[in-house]
Design brief:
mainly alpha, about 130 residues, about 75% helix
Amino acid sequence: MGIAAVAVFVGCARAATEGKGTARSLAIGWAALLTAAAGLGVFVAVLLFRLKCTHLGPESCEPEPAPWDRTDTAWQWWGQLAVALLGFGVLVAAVIQTIRRRYAQAVTWVVLAAVFFAAWTAFLAPLGDAFGI
């Protein structure tokens, strides 16, 4: 779904570069929509960072060397938060570049944000078993 959203934005940005009708408005709208979705991702990242391993209950935190999702001092909690924040910041830059009609730069920022959020989902993979997803 994320790849499709990026592809739609790229199409809108290309059309806007060619000066086609409402393409600029669509590109700005898609960039804003992607940024809002990234904001939701940051909210989840902050929530997970605050909960850390207690998402399974207060007794679920284990001393090291345990899997990172069961250790409240693991660097991965900071890492997943940092990656989500970077992805959000990059998408804000994409919106700004879209508004300034710098569509090629905006596409670059959106693709970079997609890479950040793909990395973020890789960080969260160990949590899938804990949440049943």
